[in-house]
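Worked Example 4.2. Consider the chain below.
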Amino acid sequence: MSHRPIWGVEDPTTKDTLNVMLQTALKNTRQGKLPEHVTLSLAGHMHIYQSSTFAASTARPPQIVVGNSGVSLSDTNAFSEFDYVLDNQNALVNEQGKFGFLSIKLGKNGAWQGEFLDESGTAFLTCSNETTDKQAVCRAK
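Applying the procedure from the previous section yields the following structure tokens:
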């Protein structure tokens, strides 16, 4: 967990990404990547929900940005999903500007499932470590 996400898309139309400095620092570590036992990166900072799901061949864990808990109780951006090259890796990214928070349950052997809940407790996104190369870590409900 970290306040600032390692990977983030500021604006998919202009190809602006966030935190190139953190990406460079990670590449310069001894392993050049997150340890194998890290199966999910959780972050905040961005005032939006965003997930980045990388191809299994990258050995990079998915990242969920839970930044939508710090926004007004509104629905300012509809759910969107797009393919994106993030830190030189293909990623499936989705985001939504709706107030919510993540409830996550841990299972055995690193398994986990979660839901983004709105102010009334209704789930509007479901998340799981069980993904494919064409399926995002979080999906609209």
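The chain has a mean pLDDT of 88. The first helix runs from residue 20 to 27. Compare this with Example 4.1 before moving on.
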